[in-house]
């Protein structure tokens, strides 16, 4: 009897794993990661100064300028604590402190701004411009410790 041309031949089962589709998937994922990785880098390139910081000694206590939510300015330095002061008086006081530190050959005056979190950005920038007019070069911003987040 003649065999039918439409009959299937029985082949032995191939028990090996076909990895070609897995390699294709891997190459597609590689291309996706190569395309998206440069998009994940955000921010502005800034060349930060590389200086070693020193701890402040007791003779280098900073001047603390406080700005309330209502726009009032207070200053704390040496033995004067929370003195209410106007902008022109602030400039005069800081200029005097700056000249005194320059005469003694000490470090320049460091000023820390203690501003209420409800202040407008413009009010804080105006205060920083006032400090710059007084010749202050080192200004920092004080922050409080973050509140712990409640867990549910």
TrEMBL record:
Its main location: membrane. It is a single-pass membrane protein; Single-pass type II membrane protein. Belongs to the ExbD/TolR family. Keywords: Cell cycle, Cell division, Cell inner membrane, Cell membrane, Membrane, Protein transport, Transmembrane, Transmembrane helix, Transport. GO terms for cellular component: plasma membrane. GO terms for biological process: cell division; protein transport. GO terms for molecular function: transmembrane transporter activity. Pfam families: ExbD. It is found in: Cell membrane. This is Cell division and transport-associated protein TolR. Gene3D superfamilies: 3.30.420.270. The chain crosses the membrane at residues 21-41.
